[in-house]
Amino acid sequence: MAREKINTRELARFIFEIAQLNEVPRSGWFLLNTKGESVAEHSFRAALIGYFLAKMENADAGKVMLMCLIQDLPEARILDLHKVAHRYINVRDAEKKAFREQVSFLPKKLRAELINLFEEYRDDKSKEGIIARDADLLENAFEAKMLMETHHRAAKNWLDNIKKFLVTDSAKKLFKSLQRQSCFSWWRNLKKTSR
Length: 195
Hints:
By secondary structure, the chain is mostly helical. It has helices spanning 8-19, 39-56, 61-70, 75-78, 83-86, 91-102, 108-123, 127-148, 156-165, 169-179, 185-188. Helices cover 63% and strands 0% of the residues. The N and C termini lie far apart (65 Å).
């Protein structure tokens, strides 16, 4: 099978563009009057959650991780728009258009692969798409839990809403686990205490 040739000049531009996701804040947290995380931080953690959910669900972990990593790439161009903004703007169409333009420089097969994964995620067309969406939702739940425990009680609304949309058994179990513990639990037994 012949290797597809990628225009490295355009690839470098694309990588510079996606670096902007470090600067794009997740806008839902804006409604809580807090900065929260960047889109890049969200995508990174969602991909890791997706990996574990895929393993738990016996699905293609690499495919799930890639879906989690690419699904927010359009936000480098159109920013992250919270659910109130979705009421007035057709975000799905804007994201689809932006993503297609972002990957337009890629060779035909690679471009088609990424577009198919992007649309598979958006349309819940596969087990992996459903798992990737659950991972995206769970990442929001973890962030909401952390915000709740750091004096943003209104973040509970995110948890209440996310719980309704989770599909896989693994995502539901992980959601219950996050609810049952503090976001600070990971370091409590690691502190070295002595006089």
